[in-house]
Structures are given as structure tokens and as C-alpha cells.
From TrEMBL:
One example GO MF annotation: DNA binding
Position of the signal peptide: none
Domain of life: Bacteria
Residue stretches making up the HTH cro/C1-type domain: 8-66
Pfam family, one: HTH_31
Native species: Pelagibacterium lacus
InterPro entries: Cro/C1-type_HTH, Lambda_DNA-bd_dom_sf
Annotated protein name in UniProt: XRE family transcriptional regulator
Listed SUPFAM superfamilies: lambda repressor-like DNA-binding domains
CDD domains on file: HTH_XRE
Length: 121
């Protein structure tokens, strides 16, 4: 499940909305919406994100959070390490190979560490 998918599922649960009802309101198939939540589809378009925000009738902070989560929810990414240090290429390959074996806690810790180090520069 993607970060956006988790948020959509949470919003639907809080409001007691069935996936099929939301899909109908957004004029998409239930299969598409389910695939979007589970990370089986690519990142949604800007237009779709706006429709989701309007559907839930959220404003400001929550709307920005949904937009941010959509940006980081592409389940299939490509990383071009050309021109970077050899260690960057090695790191991306290790992550690609081993990511599925890490716990959610490990992933959060790695993400936080990368972000902490990136901000220092």
C-alpha cells in the first residue's frame, strides 16, 4: 500500500464510505481505486488528486497532505545514478534488492536518516 493509499483508506473508514461508492462518485472503476490504494497503479494525475480532495471536502493542511502523499506514492520509481558517486549506485541497488526484507520500522528509520543527512548539506 502506498502512503496515499493508506490515507485514502483511513479517510474512507472514518467517514464510513465504501470503496465502490467513492469510485462511483469519482467516475472511476472500483478496480482502479483499489489498485490506486494498493500501489498497483502509478501515481495519480494532478486532476485525480484534486477530485479526491474535493470528494472528501478537505481544506488547507489536509489537502496539502493528500497532494504531498500523492507525490511520494509512485510504486515504481527509476533512479538515475549516472554522474553520482559509486556508493550512490551501490546504495540504490542494495535498496532495490533488500527493501522487501525490511520491516516498516526499518524503512522509517532509513528514510529519516537519509532525510536528516540530506538536510545537513
Amino acid at each position: 500500500m502506498t502512503p496515499l493509499g493508506a490515507k485514502l483508506r483511513k479517510l474512507r473508514a472514518e467517514r464510513g464510505i465504501a470503496l465502490k461508492d467513492m469510485a462511483k462518485a469519482l467516475n472511476v472503476s472500483s478496480a482502479y481505486l483499489s489498485a490506486l490504494e494498493h500501489g498497483k497503479r502509478g501515481k495519480p494525475t494532478w486532476f485525480m488528486v484534486q477530485r479526491i480532495i474535493a470528494y472528501f471536502n478537505v481544506i488547507w493542511d489536509e489537502a496539502e497532505e493528500i497532494q504531498r502523499l500523492a507525490e511520494i506514492s509512485d510504486p515504481k520509481i527509476t533512479i538515475d545514478t549516472a554522474g553520482l558517486a559509486p556508493e550512490a549506485t551501490e546504495l540504490t541497488n542494495v535498496l532495490a534488492r533488500e527493501l522487501g526484507r525490511l520491516s516498516a520500522e526499518d524503512c522509517k528509520a532509513l528514510r529519516d536518516e537519509v532525510m536528516r543527512r540530506a538536510v545537513k548539506r
